[in-house]
Write a structure and sequence with these properties.
3 domains; five-stranded parallel sheet; binds (2Z)-2-iminopentanedioic acid; binds NADPH dihydro-nicotinamide-adenine-dinucleotide phosphate
């Protein structure tokens, strides 16, 4: 394959999808060499079938708001690849959602899920509906209207959605309820369910915990540890909260959290008690991060900015794509950051990744370091199939094993001649090879 040509062709056929192009470019650039060692792949033009989703569903979602007005949003499900298992990946509700963003996420998910060692293909879905500022009743009506259409495209052995930005336990619960009502079937069709109806212990924690387990494994290669390190965290949602919790458990000091309006910096560190406040603020009251400084006035809030220009040892981007650009990466490196582990999907721009890799600091892409969430989703599917629930200790031990295994695979496939581990290459090659072999074995389908 000629990676450049493949990409140009995709850009021509699918214009106006910059995030999708960005994700594909990053993967193609790192797997090209390995791919070309296998002429049988190119003979079957495997790469095109790997980049273009198996199928995409798009539908209108109409629902009634509390004032009695009818609102219309778009709904999507991108089923990217099911060579190694049923389509699997989250659902995102955010005003910025469009097809290009979901195509990038579904593409990334395919490699991420392959890395987990569990039998899951890749998919992603969502809507441009934003739960922000909506009442509980509005969120429920929207979730029901969304599931009314999505039902016919998913199933426990077909496609198993979960949460992502704007979709947490509440939304998964409402969608599960509607699926159950429409199909009269109680199954593991969604993951991230409530514990009372088939959810797994540690699923809410899994992405954040997994990111920090991966960070710990990276630091260990340098004989270093999380203890005593100052950590910049972006986001204040599911991933950011549990990344902060695990940093605290390992003796590190979270310094920042953010949302799309700005970030807070606490010079004394975000302690366990302060994190409890943030969790209540975000999860119960659905408040904004700036309210933190009213409660803890020694902290500062900066509107319209990102936390990357503060001094620290480690950065964990846990909010959204392209939230850390080249300029921010340069500031992080200049301030002495030794490791960046992505909790979000594709938070670093290509320019930022270049800066990290040229400075030879530890840098892991989301598809490796945030794979803990979908891994425990896979474990939720296993528990649903055997109609048993595992203890928190069991699930956490399996999560840790999976994250350390992904780390080992990145080292195996990503170590360069000078010993520097290119985690992007490692993750992409390891993830790709398994999917490619499965596709080859299954013929042209
Ligand atoms: P949440 O909705 O719980 O939290 C998202 C956080 O990111 C919020 O603080 C939100 O702020 C902020 N954010 C969202 N969009 C933007 C934006 N455009 N600009 C700046 N800030 C933004 O989502 P999650 O924590 O679940 O997801 C965070 C990231 O992690 C995403 O990239 C997601 O794809 C990824 N991820 C999630 C997994 C999971 O299991 N949940 C698994 C693996 C990856 P605001 O309230 O202002 O919108
Ligand atoms: O990006 C992701 O891996 C997720 N949002 C979690 C997907 C899942 O199926 O648990």
């Amino acid at each position: 394959m000629d990676a450049k040509k493949v990409l140009e062709d995709l850009k021509r056929r699918f214009p106006n999808e910059p995030e999708y192009h960005q994700a594909v470019e990053e993967v193609l650039g790192t797997i090209e060499e390995e791919y070309n060692k296998h002429p049988e792949f190119d003979k079957m033009n495997l790469i095109e079938r790997l980049c273009i989703p198996d199928r995409i569903y798009q539908f209108r979602v109409t629902w009634m708001d509390d004032k009695g007005n009818y609102q219309t949003n778009m709904g999507y499900r991108v089923q990217h690849n099911n060579a190694i298992g049923p389509y699997k990946g989250g659902i995102r509700f955010h005003s910025s959602v469009n097809l290009g963003i979901l195509k990038f996420l579904a593409f990334e998910q395919t490699f991420k899920n392959s890395l987990t060692t569990l039998p899951m293909g890749g998919g992603k879905g969502g809507s441009d509906f934003s739960p922000r500022g909506k009442s509980n009743a509005e969120v429920m009506r929207f979730c029901q209207a969304f599931m009314l259409e999505l039902t016919r495209h998913i199933g426990p052995d077909v496609d198993v959605p979960a949460g992502d930005i704007g979709v947490g336990g509440r939304e998964v619960g409402y969608m599960f309820g509607m699926y159950k009502k429409l199909t009269r079937e109680f199954s593991g069709v969604l993951t991230g369910k409530g514990l009372e109806f088939g959810g797994s212990l540690i699923r809410p924690e899994a992405t954040g915990y997994g990111t920090v387990y991966f960070l710990r494994a990276m630091l260990k290669t340098k004989g270093d540890e999380v203890k005593g390190k100052k950590v910049l965290i972006s986001g204040a949602g599911n991933v950011a909260q549990y990344a902060a919790e695990k940093v605290l458990q390992l003796g590190g000091i979270p310094m920042t959290m953010s949302d799309s309006d700005g970030y807070i910096y606490d010079p004394d560190g975000i302690t366990r008690e302060k994190l409890d406040y943030i969790m209540e603020l975000k999860n119960v009251y659905r408040g904004r991060i700036k309210e933190y400084v009213e409660k803890y006035p020694t902290a500062k809030y900066t509107a319209g900015a990102k936390p990357w220009f503060e001094k620290a040892d480690i950065a964990l981007p846990c909010a959204t794509q392209n939230e850390l650009n080249e300029e921010a990466a340069k500031a992080l490196v200049a301030n002495g950051v030794i490791a960046v582990a992505e909790g979000a999907n594709m938070p670093s721009t290509p320019g930022a990744i270049r800066v990290f890799q040229e400075a030879k600091i530890l840098y892991s892409p989301g598809k490796a370091s945030n794979a803990g969430g979908v891994s425990v989703s896979g474990l939720e599917m296993s528990q649903n199939s055997e109609r048993l629930s595992w203890t928190a200790e069991e699930v956490d031990a399996k999560l840790l094993w999976i994250m350390e295994n992904i780390h080992e695979n990145c080292v195996k496939y990503g170590t360069e001649a000078d010993g520097y581990v290119n985690y992007v290459k490692g993750a992409n090659v390891a993830g790709f090879m398994k999917v490619a072999k499965a596709m080859m074995a299954q013929g042209i389908v």
